[in-house]
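ok so i was messing around last nite and threw this chain in just to see what happens. nothing serious, just curious
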Amino acid sequence: MNEITLKTSKRVELVDITAKVKEAVRKSGLEQGLCYIYVPHTTGAVTINESADPDVALDIADQLNELAPPGKSYKHREGNADSHIKSSVIGNTAEVFVEDGRLKLGTWQGIFFCEFDGPRTRKFWLKVGEL
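result:
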């Protein structure tokens, strides 16, 4: 298993981690199998979506803020209930097939770490293996 650390810079943002994941797959030497990505944070998530246009990530973040706005009078006392809600909506895992030693992503797809309670130093775990 690989642990990858990253620093986020905003309270809510989607950070493209595709290059980091590709490098881990390359280093693994796996030719055929699966790359499993897991985020061990309750206010972070991972998703696969369009990475060709950075406005897509901004639009996703904006809409999640509308769905669960910060500052609303939530019951959770830490002040980050909106972050927990956003994380639950997106989810903390993603899987991508590995074929010929490379991630099998669609033409426009990228992998994003979703920060909902930043800025922070975060981590995600990768497991690359045969099916």
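not much to say yet. The two ends are 15 Å apart (CA to CA).
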